[in-house]
Amino acid sequence: MSMLELRQVSKRYGQGANEVDAIADIDLAVERGSLVAIMGPSGSGKSTLLTIAGSLEEPTTGDVMIDGARLSGMSRNDKARLRRRSVGYVFQDFNLLAGLTAVENVSLPLELDGISMKKARAKGMAALEGLGLADRAESFPDQLSGGERQRVAIARAVVGERSLLLADEPSGALDSVNGEAVMRMILAACHGGVAAVVVTHDAKLASWADRVVFLRDGNAVDETLPPPSPEELLNPEVPNPS
Amino acid sequence: MDDFQLRSERRPSDGGLPARRAVTHWAWRLFRREWRQQFLILALITVAVAATILGSSVAVNNPPPKDAGFGTAPYSVSFASYSSKAQRFIAKAEHLGTVQVIENATYSIPGSINTYQLRSQNAPGPFGAPILSLVSGHYPSGADEVAVTSGVASAFHLSVGKSWQVGGVTRDVVGIVQNPQSLLDAFALVVPGQVPNPSQVTVLFRVPSSALRALGKGVQISTPASVAASNPLNPETISLAALVLGMLLIALVSIGGFTVLAQRRMRSIGMLESIGATDRHVRLVVSANGTVVGIVGAILGFVVGFAGWLAYRPSFEQSAHHLVGAFALPWLVVLLAMVLAVLAAYFASSRPARAVTKIPIVHALSGRPAPPRQIHRSALPGIVLLVAAFVLLGYSGGTGGGNGSGGAPELLLGLVFLMPGLILLAPFFLSLTERVSRRAPIAARLALRDLARYRARSGSALSAISIGVLISVIVVLAAASRFSNVLDYAGPNLASNQLALHTGFPPQGVILVHRNAKGQLVRVRHHKTETATPAQLAAGAEQIAKGLDAQLLALESPNAYLSGTQGGRSWSGQIYVATPQLLREFGIKASEINPKADVLTSRPGLSGVSGLVMDYGSGNPKRGANQNGNGGSVRDPLIQEVSALPSGTSAPNTIITEYAMKKFHISSDASDWLVFGTQSFTADQISSAQLTASTAQLQVESRNDIPSGSTIINWATLFGIIIALGVLAMSVGLVRSETSSELRTLAATGASSYTRRTLTAVTAGALGFLGALLGVVGGYVAMIGWLRSNSLNGGISALGNVPFGDLSLILFGMPAIAAVVGWLFASREPAVLGRQPIE
After folding, report:
1. Cβ(A66)–Cβ(A86) below 8 Å
2. b/e for B23-47, b at 16 or more Cβ within 10 A?
3. Of B14, B22, B274, the CB nearest to A77
């Protein structure tokens, strides 16, 4: 069973003469442990696809299933619970809550899910340790660098038992070194069994994905397996996702 | 499935307590980080709570304590003399429980219209401790000893160690005492049994409640509670009413503040929702923030209010004339003020909290302002409430045979309906403004359209302004209608540099003492024998004026008076004779007087009143016959209004001309005098005048604190304007911040600072004008409703006296001030308002 499955998903904005199809009849399936990159020019519907996949927005038509659960029949609260327990988001501009420290940001989804502060904090700390940020756990977002903030955001996206990671331009606000580091972390999460969908403009980063889906004007125009990256060619130890 | 997953399945769907704790924790952090953005709301709540605590403490403690006169006794009975009935009651009470008897006889203080009590009270008695304390010396222990209050000591130049003849006995002054519950209580304390003919016998007692019925036959037993209950509109009730109204205004203003705050946090809220927060969690973030603001404001308000009370208490005790404990606060009011502050902030934040959950997560994450909400059709329920208020107020005004005395519940309910009626009408007024502004210049059009589009902010501000103006307008109209009746002339009796001297005696029952030829004080049994001659009275008046270094004007009272009825009010007024001295004193030349005028007056409108009757001579029951022994009446005498005459109610504001005096053969005599000082008389000067006056059988009348109609109207106008401008100061910035992105766009398209200034000025001016208009409409609805069935002031015709000046100030002056201030302050637009916080 796919972790994420989109069936004939369309999203239309506006009415009458102002009607615009952001995405049209998109089919997409993402298995556990796999990384899918979405590429396309601005306005092609990449972010819309991601928000619909993550239950942040309703599709106009079509079905979205996460871990076998159909979103169309769910209440707002059920969707919120699904996001807490199964879906992790990583945004281009980090979207950390300013009033909370790094560890509080990471443990927040768990606390919202009813886990006691002490246990949630322990899991948050573990997630930060896994990303090398244990020493910045008590720092507030405005005391962290861009790379650190994105690592905190990734820790928050994977903490607990999340099985679907959705990242919208996760390296867009970072330099190339930090951008690659972020992609490594996402890939590491995939190796741990998480299904990930990454929206990116950067072909180099997309080459880390198992599959690349190209969008244009809301339509999926191509879907390819990326060619072996220079890293893979130089280092045969690096596993080829294909 | 591992342990973690198993536990997840058992967790509540909304995260339960841990989730609420986490969200509240975040709200608290946000408050700490962003308290400056909430400073206005916080300051508002702090000031309101502090003012309530200070104001209610002063109001509640200003009158004597509820148990004043009771000491520690639960029951009290008073008798007019030490009669057999009193003696029987005391004997029975002593048999059933504990009793303390206090006897009083009233004596006048020579040279003053004031009196003092000769009091017998057992100093270490069972109940009297709260009403008797020793300042210096010791309590009297024998019949030849007396202790006096500082007032008595001062009046009789006494001190400890001196001898003093009081109650027919020469006694040694052994102490200075006071009544802590009434520092004005002037008395001379003697041991029990030393008041020969008490005029008041107070029995303080405690008996089992089961014995009260048998004991209470034929007597009126009072308790502190029964005394307090006799006045339902006690200071606590008034404080609570003012508090509720104040908090309603604060809640209305705060809604705008919390809405903007929620908008500023839109992205954070979107983030929270993206990681799985439910609508309930989101609402909790905003309302928890509101609650925190309320709690912090309430605590700060308490600290500030209590500190203010502690600082003010010493001076307050002097003015209230009784001692007040540091913790003698109306704790119920204090507690309610704090609770209401928290509730007001909570409810003010609840509306934006609900609104923010309706914004799509993607919109919230983008940080774009939410699209304006559709117009609510709130006009109809608003009108229904106004009509209900109108009907209820009309019913209230018609009770008590048309004087409105029996309709307090309907009056309150009517006013309660009026306010939500105005609140519901506010959005309608805003959308109406937007419609009429379609042909206005771009900046004004944009400002007015934004007011209508973003009603979450502007609507609550408009409601708050309109309620502030409503209160003010009701007071203005009520005062205008109440004081519009020239026959019901009210206001200050005299100017502060004037004293009126009248002949007269102290009230019946007061024992007069008189200083005889040897300078000794002797008791006066019969007033008649002491009546001074006119020459002696005039000499006394001259002595007072000389002592004050002031001018003296003899006021001649004619053998005539004016009477009439208008608008349910009757008048039978004192008039004086327009003597040449009087006219000269007030700068009125003979040429200014109509030679045929019978009466001159400073009362505006008196000359237009028809049906006035001037009785003179034998027709005057007060004065007897005229010089010829004939009397008569003149209907509608010719009255000329002369503004130069004084306007005080006790001053010669209405005088009969010498022409009328001769025509009707009216006699007169000098019984009153007016003393003019070059500047205001001090309390010492007045006290000195009173001392002199009492030996001359004169009474001194000085300026009282009764405000005039125009004073009340002017203060109410000022109140309305200040409230409205205060609300505008707090809300215009919030309203404009919502459209700050539009300002940037305007700037990018070449709009100058003129446009920015115009936007803010029009926003402030329009909000001010609409609020004033709504408040004035509400005020007239209330007053027309109440007066239409009320005959006390002539019914609805009393509204014919429109206070144009004050209403114009509210309707046009206040919005103009708001617009000008908005224009001046809009030169620098804070850039931060337009930016979304990026974490």
Report:
1. yes
2. bbbbbebbbeebeebbebbbebbbb
3. B14
Contact A97 B272 (CB under 8 A): yes
Nearest CA in chain A to B277: A80
Same domain assignment for residues A8 and A68 = yes
DSSP conformation letters of B810-827: IIIIHHHHHHHHHHHHTT
Distance, CA of B237 to CA of B412 (rounded, Å):
13
Closest-CA residue of B relative to A116 is B18
Q: What is the pLDDT of residue B173?
A: 94
Measured between beta carbons, the chain A residues lying within 8 angstroms of B366 are none
Q: How many beta-carbon pairs under 8 angstroms link A with B? A: 120
In terms of residues, how long is chain A? 242
Q: Are residues A9 and A78 in the same domain?
A: yes
- What are the tens digits of pLDDT across the range A121-144? 999 998 888 888 889 999 988 888
Backbone angles phi, psi at A219, to 5 degrees: -115, 145
Domain that holds residue A142: 96-153
pLDDT bucket at A102, cuts 50 / 70 / 90:
very high
- Note whether A118 and A208 are same-domain residues: no
Going edge to edge, which strands form the sheet with B551-558? B551-558, B668-676, B498-503, B698-701
Same domain, A112 and A130: yes
**Count of domains forming chain A:** 2
CA dihedral B790, B794, B797, B802 (to 10 degrees): -100
Q: Which of A128, A153, A178 is a domain's end point?
A: A153
Q: Would the CB atoms of A84 and B15 count as touching at under 8 Å?
A: yes
Among candidates B4, B275, B360 on the partner chain, residue whose Cβ is nearest the Cβ of A84: B275
Reported ipTM? 0.81
pLDDT at B497 over 70: yes
Nearest residue of A to residue B367, measured between CA atoms:
A95
Residue B97 pLDDT exceeds 60: yes
User: Are A173 and A63 in a shared domain?
Assistant: yes
Name the pLDDT band for B773 (thresholds 50, 70, 90).
very high
Give percent of chain A with pLDDT exceeding 70. 93
Residue A239 inside a domain? The answer is no
Same-domain status, A178 and A117: no
Residue A208 sits in a domain whose CATH number is: 3.40.50.300
- Cα separations (Å) of B152 from B139, B171, B511, B525? 15, 14, 16, 22
Answer yes or no: is pLDDT of B304 > 90: yes
Do A111 and A205 reside in the same domain of the chain?
A: no
Q: Which residues of B touch A96 (CB under 8 A)?
A: 271, 839
pLDDT digits (tens, 9 = 90+) for B401-459: 776 667 777 888 888 888 888 888 888 888 888 888 888 888 888 888 888 877 767 88
pLDDT confidence of residue B811: 93
**A79 and A168 co-located in one domain:** yes
Domain-embedded: residue A229: yes
Q: Which of A209, A174, A152 is nearest to A34 (CA)?
A: A209
Encode pLDDT of B45-79 as tens digits. Answer: 888 888 888 888 887 777 666 666 777 888 888 88
Banded pLDDT at B372 (limits 50, 70, 90) = low
Predicted TM-score (pTM) above 0.80: no
Least confident of A135-144, B212-221, B685-694, B830-839: B830-839
Percent of chain A with pLDDT over 90: 15
Nearest Cα residue to A240 out of B573, A227, A103: A227
Q: How many CA atoms lie within 13 A of B776 on its CB side?
A: 19
What is the C-alpha to C-alpha distance for residues B159 and B173, in angstroms, rounded to an integer? Answer: 7
Whether A100 and B29 lie within 8 Å, measured CB to CB: yes
Q: Which residues of A46-78 are buried (b: 16+ CB within 10 A; e: fewer)?
A: bbbbbbbbbbbbebeebebbbbeeebeebeeee
Contact flag B275-A112 (C-beta cutoff 8 Å): yes
